[in-house]
Write a structure and sequence with these properties.
2 copies of one chain form a homodimer.
Chain A (H helix, E strand, L loop, with lengths): L8 E4 L2 E2 L6 E6 L10 E8 L3 E7 L4 E7 L1 E7 L5 E7 L4 E5 L4 E6 L4 E8 L8 E3 L12
Antiparallel strand pairs in A: 1-9, 2-3, 4-11, 5-10, 5-12, 6-9, 6-11, 7-8, 7-10
Chain lengths: 141, 141
């Protein structure tokens, strides 16, 4: 199966108002997009900084932004792009199948935080990388 | 088995330096303290605010602080207290068995973030609560 940017899907994350600080859902084992728990890890991305490009050959990603705002860019094998902006003004989880090129840019606060809940443990052998200049994209927000 | 504050354990979380923003480990399915994946959710706690007290009867918690710093207070049935401060200056995960009273206070930045990776989905029937004044503790940091 060829991965397509149309296979990325978005799930709204409920936020519960609590005195002293809210609670935000991340992921449940019953959620669509949950393919098993391999690992959870955080990526920090500073404002206007970009990390790109990376493609996972096996990993299913579930991306959540608990702080700030992050612009994700995905590209599939047909060369179609998809842009998604998620974060505290748009509390969504992105479920991303393997086989897509992606990169991201911090656009919300000075530091923006991404949590990835993935179905496998990080394995450098299933990741391929390109320099940012190798895929032409206008990263202006 | 009676839960004891001695059964809480701490795991150091590796932080990888990356240009544009670091990466921090959260939890792998092979880690000690991993008892299955039920749910991941975020709690935000503002500076100097306290949320207390709560006891889970079934849930195993794995607490990570990806932003700021949080003081956690645990109390067991013998009345023993344990204080743990985790966050960006002390990147640890706390694995907490059910049966302990706990509360927490934001002490790092204006907003502090906790991620709980729990082995069961949130269920209000397995949570008991007390008002902050019902357990005497000096919350001064």
């Amino acid at each position: 199966m060829t991965a397509s940017v149309n296979n990325i899907f978005r799930t709204s994350l409920p936020v519960i108002s609590v005195l002293g600080g809210n609670v935000m859902h991340g992921m449940k084992n019953t959620d669509i997009g949950f393919k098993g728990f391999g690992e959870a890890y955080f990526s920090y991305i500073q404002k206007n900084k970009i990390k790109a490009w990376k493609k996972h050959l096996k990993m299913n990603l579930n991306l959540i932004v608990p702080l700030g705002s992050v612009m994700f860019i995905f590209m599939d094998e047909k060369g179609s792009f998809r842009k998604e902006i998620i974060g505290d003004k748009n509390t969504l989880r992105l479920s991303v199948p393997p086989g897509l090129w992606f990169g991201f840019k911090g656009i919300g606060s000075e530091v923006n935080i991404i949590l990835n809940i993935s179905d496998i443990i990080h394995d450098d052998n299933e990741v391929i990388r390109k320099n940012i200049s190798e895929i032409n994209f206008d990263w202006k927000h």
